[in-house]
Protein 1
Amino acid sequence: MHSRWSSFLRKAGAHIKDGMAADFGNPGEETRSAVGKHILVDLSQFAIIRITGKDAADFLHGQFTSNIHALTATDLQSSSWCNPRGQVLANFLLLKPDAGFLLLLPQDMKTYFMQGLQRYILRADVTLQDESESLVRVGISGPDLSQAMNTMPGSNQDPARPIQHDKGITLLPLPADKARSILLGGVEAMQAAWHELADGFRPAGAHCWALLDILAGLPWITQATAAMFLPQMLNLDSLGGLSYQKGCYPGQEIITRLQQRGQLKRKLCLARTQNGEAIQPGRHLFSRGDQRAVGTVINIAPDPAGGHAMLAVVETAKTESAEIIPEQQDNSPLTFQPLPCPLHV
């Protein structure tokens, strides 16, 4: 996090922890405000990587699971990078500004991803650059963003439209969640935007954005879950992050074969539990009375209804026939709910 941005957030009431705004003094009330109300969230938990060079488009098209050649300046594209076994090493959001590509992914994946991808560049004209210090990321959420954005004097931005650029700020509507957008910009521009937006949006901690990602069915792979799941298990095909028509990329044969045979036995699930204080991404889920793991937690966040909401990859048959409980939890089985974005099964 940029030092001036960190100081600005502290003055706005933020408690900074692990390089992000953990909360603004009342995490419980912020969580309750996250669903159905207007909130404003620092997104320093995500890193920004710029990828440039004359070979960048072809290189990324041959590495990532989405159709990079179909990405335009007005798109925000979900994508992922897999190993030769088809397992997702990282997933991210991609956009194509004037210079190269920008990639948004969890902060704890930045070094792992950049070092791993760098090994494949070889002689290609491709450069990776960390832009996390120079570009501030802020998330806005609410039932009517267009009206709420009018609190920014002279703003021409409309979250219902594709990517827009105005006053040094880029507006990125999330394609899978019409109630949310991401703002990108330099420190000064984002400070001014925050001041204007704070009149209509409640500042909230990083856990609130994590909750909204979970409720929207948007998974994030972290180091705890890297190289564990095929893209279909994370529902990336439904989210536009997996193209079955494009050419080769690492793991493509295995991923395509699974799709052709229709043999997906584990799927992404939205679940809630009254337990969860000790549950972390990567921890296993079990069928009650069975010591064999039947699922894995992907992301988890406090739930305004109490307990925790989570995204987990779980054996499909078990979600329909058994009580699923968190690891080392003796009660409160998970309750499952439909994902907002339908699964391809």
Protein 2
Amino acid sequence: MKKKQIGIFSGSFNPIHVGHLILGNYMCEFTHLDEVWFVVSPHNPLKNTDELLDDDVRLQMTRLALSDFENLKVSDIEFHLPRPSYTIDTLTFLKNNYPDAEFTLIIGGDNWMNFHQWKAYEQLRREFPIFIYPRLNEEIVIPEQFQKNIQVVNAPIVEVSSTFIRNSIKARKNIRAFVGEKVWEFMMEKGLYR
């Protein structure tokens, strides 16, 4: 039986925005992936957590954002694993607990540039396929010996960041189109990022 092909797209999603959705949608429609799981990370060890909203609030926003997409799923798996969240631990857990699925890691070109800083990055590179999506003005170089398992996906480059969203809300800008109606209404109702 053919294994279900699942992309793992981890992030703090602080907040989730249309760039994330476009990328997830692209991966399902233009690669072999059947689904993309948005793994909401409680704590990325390489990121500052000063402006990080509560885990459950970010999870709820992600659920709202993906509610109309059949092949884009939300996962809170890292809420139940030791912290900080390391990708190798998450993917190993998923591989062991979902034997009918094959998992592909989805990362940005910026993450590929510092991939050597990730825990067990050599094991990750060996054991899991990796899709790298481009970022503006970044050249992605994959050494020849890894090209069987790692590939650049020619996804659209959408220059929207969660930092831009947070700063725009603080500046009282209406950025509804950048986050979608359901997430915007939720953020306004809760007074998030003010």
